[in-house]
Amino acid sequence: MTQTSNLVAMAVFAAGIGYSSVGTAETVSGWQSTLGLDHPLTGKIWRVEDQSFVGETALESELRDAVFILLGEIHDNPDHHRLQARLTAAALKDGRKAAVAFEMIDEAQEGHLIQHLQDRPGDAVGLGPAISWQSSGWPDWALYQPIAEAALAQNVRILPASLARPQIKAIYTEGTSSALGDDLYNNLDMARNLPAPVQAAKKEEIIESHCGHLPESMVSPMVEIQTVKDAYMAHVMNLADRDNGGDGAILIAGSGHVRADYGVPEHLRRQAPGRTILTIAMIEIQEGEHSPAAYAGRFKSETAPFDYLWFTPRVAREDMCEKFKSQMKKMGKTDPSQ
Q1: Which of 15, 47, 217, 218 is at 20 to 30 A from 203, Cα to Cα?
Q2: Strand, helix or coil at 291?
């Protein structure tokens, strides 16, 4: 693999990283993340529309009423996946057959996913190894396994929500139309130009998510890749809703994809007009920041671009910007800006 394709692969993965109970802090126990356990927001649910805290009953009611449910995460926070599993179980508990789509599973893994569940129905433990999750670059399958268990317990479909990685890379090297083919290109409405403010916001997000080290020549292609990924996730959810008789779909993805202003929901509104959408972002607390409304700044927005925020402890992690810079230097790029 060339240095350029390595950089594209690394950038594609980094761009999907989300830097983002059902109930109050008292209803959630056994936090696995270690930072901010005593923070006053930890475990609280914040409804953005009316700027108020809500409890489990109110959120479960919203889950039942929404056709499309999008659950945003920070990929390496185990508590986010525990809560996603809990929300998924709540959404499905009355026999609803909403499919559960994972950003982390792509089209190339679909055959192995289907075969595994045919051979071993309900086996969430073995699902990760069956689709070679361990070599995918995502955090350990054990973090995501509870979500799969919640889905399989209700016998609903688990779906890949991402294009195969070679196809994503081809968007950068060959162009979107060629990489997708005419039918998918048209179905995703990729000929439509993004509004200028959305284009600018996405560029800023891409630059910041790569710590300012992404070469300028890659910024616009990465915006296009992110737009394709969002549109494709919406496409998967929309098709699932049609296939299951209107029971909708649940998306597990990084919070950047879940944001309601220009993420997957923006494409759902065009692909499935009139269908209700609910966005919930799991968000790590910040020491010294006790106002829920202030967390909107993390998303460069006056109000958080989600319906609900669910606050969790924070994972102790290395500096992602230093890690990104180090990876690029290992690829022979002594100046990360080049």
Answers
A1: 47
A2: coil
Q: What 8-state DSSP symbol labels residue 272?
A: S
How is residue 324 written in tokens?
């990104």
Please name which of 124, 123, 113, 121 lies closest in space to residue 146, comparing C-alpha atoms.
124
Residue by residue, DSSP assigns 222-240 as HHHHHHHHHHHHHHHHHHH
Assign domain 3-330 one CATH number from 1.20.1260.10, 3.30.1370.100, 3.40.50.11550, 3.40.50.1010: 3.40.50.11550
The DSSP annotation for 91-130 comes to: HHTTS---EEEEEEEEGGGHHHHHHHHHHSTT-STTHHHH
- pLDDT tens digits for the chain (338 residues)? 444 444 444 444 444 434 333 444 445 779 999 999 999 999 999 999 999 999 988 999 999 999 999 999 999 999 999 999 999 999 999 999 999 999 999 999 999 999 999 999 999 999 999 999 999 999 999 999 999 999 999 999 999 999 999 999 999 999 999 999 999 999 999 999 888 888 888 999 898 888 887 888 889 999 999 999 999 999 999 999 999 999 999 999 999 999 999 999 999 999 999 999 999 999 999 999 999 999 999 999 999 999 999 999 999 988 778 777 777 676 665 443 33
Domain extents in the chain: 3-330
DSSP structural state of residue 70: E
| pTM recorded for the entire structure | 0.88
CA dist., res. 200 & res. 124, Å (int): 40
**Cα dist from 82 to 89, 125, 204, 259, whole Å:** 11, 15, 30, 20
In DSSP terms, 282 is beta-bridged to: 310
Measured distance CA(193)–CA(200) in Å, rounded:
12
Please report where in the chains the tokens 């890749």 appear, as a residue: 225
Cα separation, 247 vs 228, in Å, equals 25
What is the DSSP-derived secondary structure letter of residue 52?
E
